[in-house]
Amino acid sequence: MIEIAIEKNLRISETVHKLSSALSILPGEKVILYGKSGSGKTSLLKMIAGLIRPDTGSIMVAGEPWFNHSAKINIPIQERNIGFVFQDLALFPHMTVMQHLIYASGKQKDYRYLEDLLNLTDLKSFILQKPGQLSGGQQQRLAIIRALARKPKILMLDEPFAALDSNLKSDLRRELSILQKKQNFTLFLASHDKEDMDGFAHKYIEIREGKAIPKAHGFDRYSAAPSVSNKVDLTIGRSSHITEERISYFGTVEKIQRMENGVLFFIELGDQSLKIPVDTTTAKQFKPGDPINISSQNGQILLLPVF
């Protein structure tokens, strides 16, 4: 468990703003931090990592105090078992791909593990290339696996896909999910990209007006929740507005009711409670309390797990 209860006065554009955060994160969760530019997303990541010292409060990870203002504890970043990918990647221009991984892995090098990282990101055939010889997507992959080389328990990404096209973003999200599931690290991702809200995370945290606000889903920053009379008639599982654009919403399965001819889902979606009939095969993927992605495209309603 990661327990964060900190405050920090941040100077942004000649003005001092207080950032307060009280969060509980489970091991292995994927967490999206989102909010306007300058809201404090990156600063919160850096405080957890040890790059910025909070003014007050504490940070506990797996029962170990990483920071405690009252007890005067502030564990150095090199002892926090964190991987950090900065927005500008911060790759070394004179090092090859393999040299990046060997340097980052520290004293206890696991070459089989490094080979797995290279295979998972299709970089094995580029181990002798330097960053300037790689594409933008390859550089991004290198930055991520370099951060994972020391087998961190927490990986932090600051706007990792900002400069990439949508297809490459999709590929990298998929690879990152595979790496996260395989290595079981906790992932923090700071973003203001709408696509990162599309079922990528377990938990969404909005940074707004100096507070870190946990959300059940990411849709509310970018779109309104659907209603029966609006875009999608979810009570009967059909689309009443056919469009080629995919529309996604995120909610929580409140209750699952077995019926003679199928299953009925009760879903909390923002301030609404929706009833959606589903088939038994789909129903087997969910239990009460699970997050759920409700997508509508071309007249079809899809219910998808949030991994």
TrEMBL record:
Gene3D superfamilies: P-loop containing nucleotide triphosphate hydrolases. It comes from the Bacteria. The keyword 4Fe-4S does not apply. SUPFAM superfamilies: P-loop containing nucleoside triphosphate hydrolases (SSF52540). The keyword ATP-binding applies. Residues 1-234 form the ABC transporter domain. InterPro entries: AAA+_ATPase (IPR003593), ABC_SmlMolc_Importer (IPR050093), ABC_transporter-like_ATP-bd (IPR003439), ABC_transporter-like_CS (IPR017871), P-loop_NTPase (IPR027417). It holds the Pfam family ABC_tran. Keywords: ATP-binding, Nucleotide-binding, Transport. It comes from Arachidicoccus rhizosphaerae. This is Molybdate transport system ATP-binding protein.
